[in-house]
Amino acid sequence: FFFQRRYLDPAAADTIVLPLHGLKLEKRLHTMAPLSWKHLTILGTLLLTLTEGKKLKRVQSGKIYSEHDAVNIVVNKVGPFLNPTETYRYYSLPYCKSHATVEEGDLATSEDENGANILRGTTAGGRRAALKKLGAQKHKMRMGETIMGDRKETSPYEISYGDNIDWRLLCTETLGPKELQKFKDAIHNNYFFEMFVEDLPMWGYIGDASNEDMILGEVEGSKTILFPHLHFKLGTNNDQIVSVSVITDPDRQVDITDITQPTEVQFSYSTEFFIEPDLSWKDRMTRYADSRFLPSGFEIHWLSIINSFVLVLLLTAFLTIILLRVLKNDLSRYMELDEETMEEEESGWKLIHGDVFRFPQYTGVFCAAVGTGLQLIITTLSMLLLCLTGIISTTKRGSMMSGMIILYCLYASVGGFVSTRLYRKMNGKSWVNCILFTLTLFPLPVVAVFLWVNTIALMHGSTSALPFTTIFTVACLFCFLCFPLTLFGGILAKNYCSADFNAPTRTTKVAREIPTEVPWFRSRYFQMLIAGFLPFSAIYIELHYIFASVWGHQIYTLFGILLFAFILLVIVTSFITVALLYFQLAREDHRWWWITYINGGMTGLFIYVYSFYFYYKRSGMSGILQSSFYFGYMALVSFAIFLMLGSAAFHISLIFVRHIYGRIKCD
After folding, report:
1. What's the pTM?
2. CB neighbours (10 Å) of residue 539?
3. Contacts of 158 (CB under 8 A, 6+ apart)
């Protein structure tokens, strides 16, 4: 429906029919009043309902099963294993959407190892479900699951709790050249599939290719094999399902190398229930660290953690001792001078006491960056603490992503308050512009990257493309939660915070000239290099495991270590920035505001540079879709780290500058 600003098109029909829901809206078009916010809200809700359509309820986890209760196998997506973001609907491949009938199952045959035909069907074990299941029916999902690219749908597998099935026919499909080509392309691209039982994921490969050339691909003598049979293993404890896995049977294969002729394929399955006495339901996710399907070698090495911790301690202790020793000597010398020799003996950082509190250029952007960085720091710490305490379940798909979005919006008042408070202390006059900068400094790049990657995903038909409902929900959170709270924080700072900066020294009217001849090792660019490299070296080892978890199929659960590493990163960045600030002031350069912020945030740039190394040397990712998501979102993550560490470095540097200039005698 296309609505004009005030009225509907007079030439339109008097009755609007909504065929999906059988609704009729009769309006007198020529006398319609202007659309109000109430009407727009109703319209948005209506569009959401039309877009969402009818979906099944989510399969709840933790169910207590009785004998022969139906167990739901939920299919999710398929995609190249090495490209975790490049995913597609499970039924984008021609899988069975309905179960074979009892008569078809009784007539189905499969060959044993000796080549004999054996009658298999419902007599091979297990009970048939009372109601026939259909596949490709969409499930309702949480916002976080949708953001993660999940598209859960029903499957026709008929499994009942506690009933083992030796073999059962799912369906018989005659695949033509088009369908065979889809399967063949998927197998050659190393596609995997993902399914769920409750909230427990399981993975398997679609097929296998043998005798392929690493460079040329399919050559003469190579074979493409489809796995039509799946064996489900379900572990139980206290009548709850605590572990699941799916295995493809190598003895039941279909050769689809030749796609010119139609091929009849029998898709089948079997089930096995077993007792897991040592695995409770609350610890069900611990088994995924040992999954054979996931790559080994992704474990967190405690030795590397100890190494990083010792490195940070030594670096921090070294900087602390040096700074305290140098500052003590400087302060003692300055305090012993009398007033007659004060002017003659002034040098170094003492000489620029009249310029060090001269406010920087572009104060609105600077204050917005400081406020947004602090907002992101509090959001990150809160998220890690909530994950540690179990308030946010890390086992639920997308729960962390949803939590980050909501927490960022809730802490918008912190960003608005801090940025406006600092802006007023810097004699800023246009506080509204400062609020707007704070509101858009981080979300605007997010929207720009999202528009690019979402367009690429839509062009490829990938599930990574967000649907309209999710985009609308996030937009509402920003408009009706983030924006008002940012404005509230700014108004609070404007009305109740003092505008006096309370600098310990007076600022002169004319800025002092800054020396231009400095050694290369004391130049600004070399200090920026050191400021980024040293903190990065402290987290380099752990960074590999974090990348492998985020851009892989590993489930990351060590949030205590992640919190510890984040705190160490903030501490070492702050100390290094303060040390570099002292050397900058000692060479009589009073332009420290932006420099300390940039020095602190340089680690974010190093992380982004490392992402290129990881992509090309440590991962097998490829393709325009995966690379767009990877480099786009890594740019956002690096920018967020830049804002966080820059804000932390500035606050520590401001405390340091206030302290040293508050201890000296000056006119």
Report:
1. 0.84
2. 22
3. 70, 99, 128, 129, 133, 168
* Contact (CB, 8 A) for 412 and 375: yes
Residue 366 structure tokens: 């600077």
- Residue 605 pLDDT > 50: yes
Please tell me the distance from the alpha carbon of residue 380 to that of residue 637, in angstroms, as a whole number. Answer: 12
Which residue shows structure tokens 């997308």?
398
Q: What is the DSSP string of 134-151?
A: BSSPBBP--HHHHHTT--
Predicted confidence at residue 636, as pLDDT, reads 97
Distance CA 482, CA 318 (A): 42
The tally of CA atoms less than 13 A away on the side-chain side of residue 279 is 17
User: What Cα–Cα distance (Å) separates residue 515 from each residue in 525, 585, 653?
Assistant: 16, 11, 22
First to last CA, the chain: 72
Phi, psi (degrees; rounded to nearest 5) at 175: -90, 125
| Of the candidates 493, 478, 535, 504, the residue with the CA atom closest to the CA atom of residue 663 | 504
Q: 325 exposed, middle or buried (CB, 10 Å; 0-12, 13-18, 19+)? A: exposed
Q: Count Cβ atoms within 10 A of the Cβ of residue 538 and give its class: 0-12 exposed, 13-18 middle, 19 or more buried.
A: buried
Three-state secondary-structure class, residue 443? helix
> CA 223 to CA 220: how far, in whole Å?
9
**Can you list the pairs that 52-58 forms with residues at least 24 positions away whose Cβ atoms lie under 8 Å?**
52/469, 53/20, 53/138, 55/137, 55/138, 55/139, 55/140, 56/137, 56/138, 56/139, 56/140, 56/154, 57/139, 57/140, 58/139, 58/140, 58/141, 58/142, 58/152
Would you tell me how many other CB atoms lie within 10 Å of the CB of residue 512?
16
Task: Write out the H or E segment, with its range, that includes residue 16.
Answer: strand 15-18
Neighbours of 141 (CB within 10 A): 21
Q: Measured at the alpha carbon of residue 573, what is the angle toward residues 570 and 578, in degrees to the nearest 5?
A: 125
**β-pair type (74-80, 191-197):** antiparallel
Cα distance between residue 404 and residue 471, in whole Å? 16
User: Is residue 15 exposed (0-12), middle (13-18) or buried (19+ Cβ within 10 Å)?
Assistant: exposed
The CA dihedral of 577, 583, 589, 594, to the nearest 10 degrees, is -10
Which amino acid type is present at position 329?
N
Q: Tokens 């660290």 correspond to what residue?
A: 289
Write the pLDDT tens digit of every residue in 408-466.
Answer: 999 999 999 999 999 999 998 899 999 999 999 999 999 999 999 999 999 999 999 99
Helix axes 443-460, 431-440, angle to 10 degrees: 30
Residue 426: the pLDDT is: 93
Q: Dig out the tokens for 55 from the structure.
A: 């979906």
166-181 pLDDT, tens per residue?
999 999 999 999 999 9
Phi-psi region of 348 (alpha: psi -120 to 50; beta: other; left: phi over 0): left
Alpha-carbon Rg of the chain, whole angstroms?
A: 32
* pLDDT score of 213 more than 90: no
Listed residue (199, 238, 234, 201) closest to 64, CA to CA: 238
Q: Please report how many Cα atoms fall inside a 13 Å half-sphere around the Cα of residue 447, on the Cβ side.
A: 11
CA angle 161, 166, 170 (to 5 degrees): 80
Number of H helices and E strands in the chain, helices first, is 17, 18
Here the tokens at position 96 are 């069975």
Range 546-571 burial, b when 16+ CB lie within 10 A, else e: bbbbebbbbbbbbbebbbbbbebbbb
Q: What tens digit of pLDDT does each residue of 525-582 get?
A: 899 999 999 889 878 877 887 888 888 877 676 788 788 888 888 988 998 899 899 8
Residue with tokens 């399955």: 269
Q: In the structure encoding, which two tokens stand for residue 334, read together?
A: 């300055």
Measure the CA–CA gap between 223 and 256, rounded to whole angstroms: 8
Residue type, 588: E
